[in-house]
Amino acid sequence: MTQMELPDIGLFEAIYSARSIRRLKPDPVPKELITRILDAAIRAPSGGNAQSWAFVVVRDRELRRQLGVIYRKASDIAEAVYAARGRPPHLTERQYARFMAAGRHLWDHMGEAPVLLLPCSHPPILPPREALPPDIAASWEEEAAYAERIRGASIYPAVQNIILACRGLGLGTVITTNHIRCENEVKALLGIPEDVFTWALMPVGWPIDKFGPLTRRPLTEVAHADRWGTAWSDGRQSRERGVSGWHYNEPGIVVRSA
Question: How many domains, in total, are found in the chain?
Fold first, then answer.
């Protein structure tokens, strides 16, 4: 498949194969594809339908280089945190080594991606205390804390749409947040207003590595039925655990073997 021969995949295939792509070719991405990705992003839901998002698309070579330098500095902190934390128990030594190697590649080469995309958002708009009924005005601070607590719910659905749109177009990307450790430098470089927050720094480009399938912890370890601590079970077994009697007919569709 050439780069402009777009794949024809279904939603669940995209979901089950949208691997985090950290190694990208330097080849340019056509502007019309970037526009399609952005248009998919703004189809996401947002709290109160506020649509308070904004997206900064960086294609200028020098700006990408400088962002890469900032990202590398921020990633030095991330690397130290990963080293201190150690390997998560659900990853094998080999899986963790591959994860860290891919991460280090991105830390060193972020600025070489042909497109760097920063999803941002404006702060939530709260009414003045005096405009609220007395009983709610009395807990205005709690309401402000609530608005701050849920801000990510109005931007990260758009980020997921970006990931799926990239997968549907045959492009690779990954959600990264290391740059937030040095966000003031990023905002100064790109002229982002002080009251606008960035939520991710996403490289976009043609992938060097292949897409999925993805390996995840089984539902029985992360989903609860009715109450916390009662494992979810619908009779299906985990593909990752290699349990006989089940197979994947297509990505995300589990059927019992004959």
Answer: 2
Best CA proximity match to 209, nearest among 6, 20, 13, 35: 20
The secondary structure of residue 224, as a DSSP letter, is B
Task: State the residue for tokens 């962002």.
Answer: 67
151-164 tens-digit pLDDT: 999 999 999 999 99
CB 19 within 8 A of CB 214: yes
For residue 118, pLDDT over 90 is answered with yes
Say whether 13 sits in a helix, a strand or coil: helix
What Å distances lie between residue 225 and 161, 218, 220, 237, CA to CA?
28, 14, 10, 16
Binned at pLDDT 50, 70 and 90, residue 5 comes out as: low
Name residue 220's amino acid.
T
CB-based contact 12:252 (threshold 8 Å): yes
DSSP run (H or E) holding 244: none
Residue 57 lies in domain: 11-212
